């Protein structure tokens, strides 16, 4: 009975089987230790499934590669990086600058001409009346339109009449024969047109040198109109009273100051310049008008 208890007791293995140790996996195939604080991984090829590791569909929660639970993931798996040397000393990662999603590159900025005209082209009647009654909006609206037709015609007519605003020139024209007076008057009108073109070009060039970006055709055309229109009141009285009359003298100063204000406004709107620079760009033309036409001194 004692032998039976010794041989049939708690363990049925033979002495050789009792001393066998679990077979160790070859070197290099052992699963890495789990991260600190997590459950130990089951042995490779094992069938044990932790409680709650199965998905609702019946698939086991182990990866088929290493046998680790899928919800743990591979602790040694590193995310893919594009450039391993990016942002390290001596290396720079390339980047791009996104375009402005709210603009197409045509947005108006200070110092630049607008992408589109400020308004429709004005009729010549609206243009001439606008220079006197609403100069600011008129110059802004016509800053991108050439005004050669009104500018050349008005300046030529102004030159024809301006001859009679000077006392000595008027006497010479009146006492001359028709064949002599007509070419003389026509040449005077043409001379005013050429002078207006030259002075307007000078004003445009100075405006560009001071940072303006307006077109030259509107600048020159509008400057010719300003020169002719602002001197009209003085010229009307000079035709009857003479250039040396005191009233004509006073009107000459007043209209010259008015032309300075209009030139400043026009250059400021056409070239997007502050008024001090706009006035500086118009200085040469204003000085020329002052010395040539003012008060009927030639």
Automatic annotation (TrEMBL):
Principal location listed in the UniProt entry: membrane
Region (Disordered): 1-119
Membrane-topology descriptor: Multi-pass membrane protein
Keyword set, alphabetical order: Membrane, Transmembrane, Transmembrane helix
Chain segments annotated as transmembrane: 145-164, 184-207, 247-267, 279-297
Domain Yip1, chain residue ranges per copy: 130-291
Pfam families with a match to the protein in the record: Yip1 (PF04893)
Low complexity bias (residue ranges): 14-30, 110-119
Protein name per its UniProtKB record: Yip1 family protein
């Amino acid at each position: 009975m004692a032998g039976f208890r010794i041989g049939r007791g708690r363990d049925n293995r033979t002495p050789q089987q009792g001393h066998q140790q679990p077979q160790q996996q070859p070197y290099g195939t052992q699963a890495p230790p789990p991260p600190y604080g997590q459950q130990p991984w089951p042995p490779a090829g094992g069938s044990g499934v932790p409680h709650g590791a199965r998905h609702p569909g019946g698939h086991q929660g182990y990866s088929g590669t290493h046998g680790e639970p899928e919800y743990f993931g591979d602790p040694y798996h590193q995310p893919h990086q594009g450039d391993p040397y990016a942002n390290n000393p001596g290396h720079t990662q390339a980047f791009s600058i996104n375009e402005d999603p709210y603009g197409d590159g045509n947005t108006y900025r200070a110092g630049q001409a607008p992408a589109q005209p400020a308004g429709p082209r004005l009729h010549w009647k609206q243009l001439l009346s606008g220079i006197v009654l609403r100069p600011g909006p008129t110059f802004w609206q016509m800053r991108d339109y050439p005004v050669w037709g009104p500018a050349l015609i008005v300046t030529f007519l102004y030159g024809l009449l301006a001859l009679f605003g000077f006392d000595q020139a008027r006497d010479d024209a009146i006492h001359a024969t028709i064949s002599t007076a007509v070419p003389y008057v026509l040449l005077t009108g043409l001379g005013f047109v050429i002078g207006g073109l030259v002075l307007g070009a000078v004003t445009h060039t100075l405006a560009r040198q001071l940072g303006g970006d307006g077109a030259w055709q509107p600048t020159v055309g509008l400057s010719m109109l300003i020169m002719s229109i602002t001197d009209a009141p003085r010229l009307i009285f000079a035709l009857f009273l003479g250039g040396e009359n005191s009233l004509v003298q006073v009107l000459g100063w007043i209209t010259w100051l008015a032309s300075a204000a209009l030139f400043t406004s026009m250059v400021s709107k056409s070239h997007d310049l502050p008024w001090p620079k706009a006035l500086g760009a118009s200085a040469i033309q204003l000085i020329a008008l002052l010395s040539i036409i003012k008060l009927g001194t030639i």
